[in-house]
Structure formats: C-alpha cells, structure tokens
Design goal:
By secondary structure, this protein is α/β, with parallel strands linked by helices. It is built from five helices and seven strands; from the N terminus they run E-E-H-E-H-E-H-E-H-E-H-E. It has helices spanning about 30-40, 55-70, 90-100, 115-125, 150-155, and strands at about 5, 20-25, 45-55, 75-85, 105-110, 135, 160. The strands form two sheets. A five-stranded parallel beta sheet has the order 4-3-5-6-7, with helices on both faces. Strands 1-2 form a two-stranded parallel ribbon. The radius of gyration is 16 Å and the shape is globular.
Length: about 170
C-alpha cells in the first residue's frame, strides 16, 4: 500500500528495501541532526550533553546527532541522557542533577517530545537553574509555545529546528 507521510521523520523509513512504498514530504531526522551539529559548531561549543525521550524519535535523533558530530569532528559529548517513556515522580529533577554532573557542558541538545521538554524546563526552574543551560531543540519543539509557556526564563535563548514550511494558496 503506497503511503505518503506529512510528519514521519524516522530515518529507518528511508530504507527502500523495507519500506518500498513509503514516501515523505519532510526530511528525516538525520538532516535535523546535521543542522543541529552545524548550529552547535557555529556557536563555538565543543562540549555538549544530549537528552532524548525514550523511543524511536528521541533515541534515533540523538544517535544521528552523535554520528554527525563524529563526522564533523571537534565536538565532545559529555553525556547522553534518556528520559523514560513513563517517568516516575522526581525523574526530571534527576535529569537536571545528571546534567549538572558535567556542569561545564552547558549546551544541551534535545530530541524529546513536547511534554518531556516542558518537564525538563520545569525541573531546571525548580532547581534554580534557569539560564544555566543553552538548549538546542529538535522539530518536536520547533515553533510551539506549549513547551515553554510560563517557563520562558528557563527556555530563554533556546534554538530550535523546524523544517521549512510554506503555505499553499487556496
């Protein structure tokens, strides 16, 4: 059955051997990861952490970022943290605590869903660390307001990736 997706960015869907009749109108996450590496390098960062929502989107996005950063060179990954699918109470405070273990890696690359992004920003605010981290977020954050509403101080200065969009007249 031929399928055309307007939102599926998972890189494995680009395998024509497995998904012969699949096509998409958005680029795969591997392109996003390359763009994020370019942003990190343009900012002059050489030491960053990554944060991913557990699951295909987050984990494969971070994997693509790490792969692209190795190819580009000059970038060290301080740590890669995974947010569980069903986080327990206090899980996001632990995430912030882990990020602080390598506190000189103030840049954090996020491949996470909207809810996880919001809860990470809330945890940073509660830990009195608004403004400590500089976030580079994937398209799940993009131009959405929901993840940052009321948490603007913690998200201040974030750079997010979003595929180019255009309105089709009519």
């Amino acid at each position: 059955i031929p399928q055309i997706s307007y939102a599926s960015t998972a890189p494995e869907l680009s395998d024509p051997g497995r998904y012969e009749f699949f096509s998409r109108v958005v680029p795969p996450d591997s392109y996003q990861a390359q763009a994020m590496v370019a942003v990190v390098r343009a900012l002059g960062w050489s030491y960053v952490s990554t944060l991913a929502s557990e699951g295909n989107y987050g984990e494969s996005g971070v994997e693509a970022f790490v792969h692209s950063s190795r190819e580009a060179g000059g970038l060290c990954i301080a740590q890669s943290i995974k947010i569980p699918r069903e986080p327990r109470p206090g899980e996001f405070a632990k995430v912030i605590k882990r990020l602080m273990e390598t506190s000189t890696a103030r840049g954090v690359v996020l491949f996470a869903n909207e809810d996880d992004i919001r809860r990470v920003l809330e945890a940073a605010t509660l830990a009195n660390l608004s403004g400590h981290f500089s976030w580079v977020g994937s398209d799940s954050w993009g131009a959405k307001m929901a993840p940052v509403q009321g948490l603007e101080e913690a998200a201040h200065g974030a750079i997010t990736i979003l595929p180019k969009r255009a309105s089709v007249p009519g």
